[in-house]
Amino acid sequence: MSRWIQSFLLTAGFGLLLYVAYVEIDSRLWQEQASRQLSASSAPLPPDVERARGLVGRLEIPRIALSVMVNEGTSPLTLRRGVGHVEDTAMPGKSGNIGLAGHRDTFFLPLRNVRRHDLVTLVTQQGTFRYRVVSTRIVAPTEVSVLASDAGQVLTLVTCYPFYFVGAAPKRFIVRAERHFVQDE
């Protein structure tokens, strides 16, 4: 009986390691492919052109070494491979609130170190958009008003909280940033 349990546990452990390796490789390959796709579209599209569903761009927060590709939607596959643009929120360059969601234990783990005034850049086919962090807060998962539309150009990053929680985290960590216009835009 114990020999059977040993074999089962060894097989299960090996299976889990293979799955983790697959997920890691898949997300890295998708990040590289999406980055190449964004780079290949060197001619920016006008802001009024609606883009096809799919790649949104690259989110960067240099001070905390965050650089991740953003895709449309928040399906489990999208969030496993990168950060997702929350459907029915604004698009970069347009008025409103752009909602981006990511997992706290993968791509959005660096958000634990974000601070007020950090520069956030969103590189898209329509251009490069810069934002400054104005606040962070912790809310209940039901607090969806953080994604409410805004008259200005706002970026809201959403991830689960606490960052080092085992299991489904009970709260959400919210980073709010406002569009930061510079001379070269």
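^ that was protein a. below is b, sequence first then the tokens
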Amino acid sequence: MADVTDRALSFGSGAADYERHRPGYPEELVAAIVDYAGRPLRTALEIGAGTGKATRVFAAAGIDVLATDPDAGMLAELRRHVPADVRTLQAPFEELGGTGTYDLVFAAAAMHWTDPVGRWPLVASLLTDGGVFASFGGQVDLADPDVDEAVRKACEPFLADDEVPSPDGTPAEAAMQWPGSELLLADAFTDVRQLVIVRRTVMSTRDYLGHLSTISAYRVLPADVRAEAFARIGEVLPDEVGLTADIVLHLARRA
């Protein structure tokens, strides 16, 4: 099985597919973060910006964003979709120390790819006094349990599981999910909260398979194996699929 590093660096070659098939983020997300902050958020640093799915909604809210990502391909795609005044920096999270301090540091489905050693002290060092950290994301799941089971069985010969396990082993049924579970223990942070933004959508089978092609567990499969897996999955899907795509938002304030 490919390790976490392989999966983390698997996206850049499919940046255009990622942009096309991954869902964006609603203005409601930014509003929830601003409400939590309780003060203006003028500057932000984004960790693992990808193609700018989240970048653009924060920039649209008038926040000066520095979007960072270790992958040049993802940042090149990002530049096609964000305002010209959004700054970018090609760098992994672990090399962001010394790039300044910001009212907000945020990550969209990216923190689980970062090195756990020194993760939270580094985030804290990037924040102004009382600055806010926000991490958000969530699985895109098939809403119909029968369809979900059919897909699981079709995929089983090729891939046991396409989820990224909780970095600290927090079980799925726990009230506080990761990274909130770690932030509660981090001395540099206080007022840790978890919010859920409900999101439901419908995709064609073609677009759903396109979405699967952006998932790291599939991307690291050999091309012929991935193609066969998608063919088998496509055979058991209806023309359209309903999806549950809730956004789980974790918030914390620098102590």
